[in-house]
Structure formats: C-alpha cells, structure tokens
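FIELD: query
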Amino acid sequence: MLENVSSAKERWGGVNVMIDRWLKERQQLIVNYCQLSRADDFDSPEKLRAALLVFCELLVDYVSAGHFEIYEQLIQEACEYDDGGLELVSRIFPRIEATTEAALEFNDRFDGCDGTGVGLQDLYQHVSQLGETLEERFELEDVLIEALHTAHADKVA
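FIELD: result
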C-alpha cells in the first residue's frame, strides 16, 4: 500500500494543494492502519484503545475529506470539461460509496471501544477486511484523480 501512495504522490504531487494534503492524510492513515494491524503488539487494553481512537478519527476524516472536498472538485472539473468524466464518475462512485459504508461500519464498531471487550481475532478480521476495502478505495480514487484532474491540470492551472 505504501508504494502505491508514493507513486500517486509522484504523479500528482504539487498539482493541487488540496489533493497533496489529502494524499498526506492517506499516507498517515496507512501508517496507523499498519500499526493497528499488529494489535497484539499493544501491551495493554488502554494502548489498543488509544490506537483504535486515533485510527478511527483519521479514517473518518479521510473519508469525509474525499466526499466533501476532493470528489466535489473532481466532479466540478468533469462537468466543466465534459469529456467523458461524468461517465467515469457514474461507474466509480457506487464502488467508492460501498467502501465508505465499510469504513463507517468499522468506525461505528470500534470507535469508543474500551479495548477490554475486543477479541484480537475479531479485531484482526475486521482490520484485515478494512485493509482490502481501503486498498480498493485508494485505487478507485487514483483513477478519478488521474482521469478527472490530471487530464485537465494544464487547463486548471
């Protein structure tokens, strides 16, 4: 996953301040995800709880920024340039919406968890499923950025 973030930053870094900031948030989310995926490394329920709280906050912030900032800008560009981008949006957005629902379900399940009632096996299963979902989401977002923003970067600048 981290390699994909680096290549995305190389392709789009500097194109738009908002996208750059969002890609940095994505990278931080992945770092925290990797820490959380090693939940048995936590030597107390309090540390696990703290890690879950931080991760859930980053997760919701990232998903929200996508929906309420980034996607709006990309859709606006697609409308403005009317070069097939809206077709792409109509195919990809339902898949992104499904990943949003999975992320919010994870948050609802584990945010505010006190760390004592969480079975590590249950946590690992949910973290693993979320990781697959996030990887799919990141790939879909990269397609949107490349097709709807990078294609118009010279016109937007």
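FIELD: remark
The chain has one domain: 2-156.
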